[in-house]
Structure formats: C-alpha cells, structure tokens
Amino acid sequence: xxxxxxxxxxxxxxxxxxxxxxxxxxxxxxxxxxxxxxxxxxxxxxxxxxxxxxxxxxxxxxxxxxxxxxxxxxxxxxxxxxxxxxxxxxxxxxxxxxxxxxxxxxxxxxxxxxxxxxxxx
Length: 121
Known about the structure:
Strand content: 25-35%
CATH architecture of the largest domain: Single Sheet
CATH topology of the largest domain: Ubiquitin Ligase Nedd4, Chain: W
Order of helices and strands: HEEEEEEHHH
Number of domains: 2
Radius of gyration: 26 Å
CATH superfamily of the largest domain: Nascent polypeptide-associated complex domain
Helix content: 25-40%
Structural class: alpha+beta
Distance between the termini: 67 Å
Low-confidence stretches: none
C-alpha cells in the first residue's frame, strides 16, 4: 500500500468532507458510573465528518480515581403528595401503592396510572 504524505492525506480528508481541528486541552476526564478516567496532557482533535463530531484523545498517562459525583440512586425525584393522591384516586389504589408506582415511573403520572391499571387485571 502506498504511503500518504501529510499533504495528500489533508487533501483526501478535504475531498471526503472531514475537517480536523486541534483543541487546547489540559486534562481530559471521562466519568464512568463508579470511577473517573483522567488523561494527563492529552492531545485532543475534533473531527467533523458529515455533521458528526468525533473527539480523538491521545495522552501521556491514564489515571483512575474514584468518582466524585453522587450516585444515581441518591437522586430520587421528589414526588408531590397531590400527584400521589391523584394517581391513587384514578387507579383506585392506596397512597403507598401510588407512591411506589410514581417512583418506578420517575414521577410520570400517566405511566404510573397505566402501570397500576395493568397490575390490577
């Protein structure tokens, strides 16, 4: 296979509609559910290909550390009591059952009523 010079590569990328732009990044942090991956002194390039944006990260070192973000389980939505009573009255169930259904559906009233109605059949 023929080796491409940087100039030929740049021309080919232009013909394909690919643009590459370096970004001045000092540190790249990837937040996972249970930890963070930190790339020190990264070289980050933003590639724009037919409207799609792609970030390419190349770094000197990779460091893992525990996540500092609160867990998803701790962020339960607060459900107003009027929503609980509305779902309970519409579905014909107790307030506790309505509260559980609202928690399960993320506070969506219609989904909670449908869920409770389907359980009663």
